[in-house]
Specification:
Elements lengths: L1 E5 L4 H11 L11 E6 L7 H17 L3 E2 L3 H6 L3 E4 L7 H8 L6 E3 L7 H14 L3 E2 L8 H4 L8 E7 L13 H12 L3 E9 L3 E8 L4 E7 L7 E5 L4 E5 L7 H15 L6 H15 L7
Helix pairs in contact: 1-2, 5-9
Pfam families: GFO_IDH_MocA
Protein name: Gfo/Idh/MocA family oxidoreductase
Organism: Cytobacillus citreus
Length: about 290
């Protein structure tokens, strides 16, 4: 299967290409190859503009992916699309440019930047009969996949929460924390409280409709330590994603390739829409108790 990559402005472009295109890689994912890429980046977003040339050279020169400028030519030469620009603000516009080709599309996080845009995504998917999938790689981390938290009593989730003005609050890195929570505990959250601590981190208190609670700590300084503690009636379960033997990006790509082959997403757009709505609610909060 030939995959087209839109966006060369994020580490995901290098990681996805390496895992799919290099059979010698320890965590190689078979079944598909990235063959073409559209060299997309955002001029007004430093994390996009400043990294574009670096990742373009890797994808083009090391992995021999053909760089094309014409969207129609790009779509004609691929069977499925990874829409992986770092800038979630442009995902909906790119989707509108390609969805009429009716080829399965994976949209990297954040899928879009509002519930209104998400509704548009769902309408476009239905109208053009084009399957769409979006998921954080953390959902498929070994540590997460091996947990059945249905009978949890309470939980504590932690990880990085660096900020980007263009993708505020939990729309950028924080979306991974939210996706972990939804994957483990579901979306039946009734109340949310937030407290910020001296510009270093913030805490969320998520209360579910049945009274169970999950605390979330997001550190404003970036690091790779995602993890958590889950309490049950008679035991405690801990997990540390950075200690997993197999990288979660490889697990995600296995799911993506299967989605491209079957056109059946393991994560419904309805659940993705619930995640976007939850982020909007969190971003709209002020200090704890307000």
């Amino acid at each position: 299967m030939r995959i087209g990559l839109i966006g060369l402005d994020t580490s995901h472009s290098e990681i996805f290409t390496r895992l799919l295109n290099d059979p010698k890689d320890l965590h190689y994912v078979a079944g598909a190859t990235i063959t073409h890429a559209l060299p997309v980046f955002s001029e007004d977003l430093p994390i996009s503009k400043d990294r574009f040339q670096h990742y373009k050279e890797i994808v083009e020169n090391k992995y021999k992916v053909k760089i094309v400028e014409d969207v129609e030519m790009f779509m004609h030469n691929v069977d499925a699309v990874l829409l992986a620009t770092v800038d979630g603000r442009n995902h909906l516009s790119w989707l509108k440019n390609i969805i009429h080709h009716q080829k399965p599309i994976f949209i990297d996080k954040p899928i879009v930047m509002s519930s209104a845009e998400m509704e548009n995504v769902m309408d476009l998917s239905a109208k053009h009969r084009t399957p769409i999938m979006s998921s954080s790689s953390l959902r498929y981390a070994e540590s997460i996949k091996n947990i059945n938290a249905r009978d949890f009593v309470s939980g504590y989730i932690y990880g990085p929460l660096p900020q980007q003005d263009a993708m505020p609050g939990y729309f950028w890195y924080g979306i991974h924390l939210i996706e972990m929570i939804v994957a483990l505990f579901g979306t039946d959250i009734s109340t949310i409280q937030k407290e910020k601590y001296a510009g270093k981190y913030e805490m969320l208190k998520l209360s579910f409709s049945d009274g169970r609670q999950v605390m979330v700590r997001g550190d404003y300084e970036w690091h790779d330590r995602f993890g958590g503690v889950i309490h049950y009636h008679n035991r405690v379960e801990t997990f540390q994603l950075w200690k997993d033997e197999r990288p979660y990006y490889a697990n995600l790509l296995v799911e993506i390739v299967n989605f491209f082959e079957t056109c059946l997403s393991p994560v419904s757009l309805e659940e993705t829409a619930a995640i976007i709505k939850l982020i909007e609610q969190i971003n709209g909060l002020d200090e704890f108790g307000v």
